[in-house]
Amino acid sequence: MFKIVGKDLLAPNIYKILVEAPLVAARARPGNFVIIRVHNAGERVPITVSNHDSEAGTLTLVIQAVGKSTKDMADLEVGDAIRDILGPLGVPTKIEKARRIIGVCGGIGVAPMLPLLRAYRRQGTEIVTIQGARSGELLILQDEVKTVSDEVILVTDDGSIGGKGLVTNPLLELLGQGAQFDHALAIGPAGMMQAVCQVTRDYDLPTTVSLNAIMIDGTGMCGGCRVTVGGETKFTCVDGPAFDGHAVDFEELILRQAYYREEEEYARECRRCGEEG
Fold first, then answer.
1. Would you tell me which CATH number, out of the four given (2.120.10.30, 2.40.30.10, 1.20.1250.20, 3.40.50.2300), belongs to the domain 2-89?
2. Can you give the pTM of this predicted structure?
């Protein structure tokens, strides 16, 4: 059992949870994720480690309560315990030697982006971050992003904070004006990462993405998280989650993410019925 020692509401249905997991925290690296099971009958849910403290033995996890399992997780309070935390899993993201990089994150993609930005910051890299969300209230972790960035550009779909539009708008503007970067990072919804990679490909800017394929076991046995990268089949859980964004078949990824929509909706309805008695 893993005790929850901190919990904050970041935005509607988005929570930051601090959990005691000393063995995992001691080995976690930027890009790693964990598989969480709230209770014995719970679904296995992959969540990227947003931060870890090896001395305190804690992990910081950011959870968006959208499905049954993530809502069950969000219902837990400080003092409660999570049944299982498996990890750290995945291949740590390679932190390239770079003078200047640009990070592009959408929605809760900022949570897995932060450990990568911190790692680049530690080696002295100049960082420009574009952070986007549907609305201003969903722009989470802004202070943390500012701490590790030399420049932050905010955009929202509705224009309530920052520029109005998509994260690709300021990216296109910067690259079109001749801004030079050694590397780009993109983390967020699959469609967003695909759009970013379409832009950076045109400017020959190497781009690393973190894929959010559906996972079950997290150890490469089930094959549920398979993706096509450079014409080859890869498993997100053991070969990723970081990949060369220009080599990813995003159309396939987006299609596979929709495979279990009916089952997910059924689980949500069952949970709703249980709450209403």
1. 2.40.30.10
2. 0.90
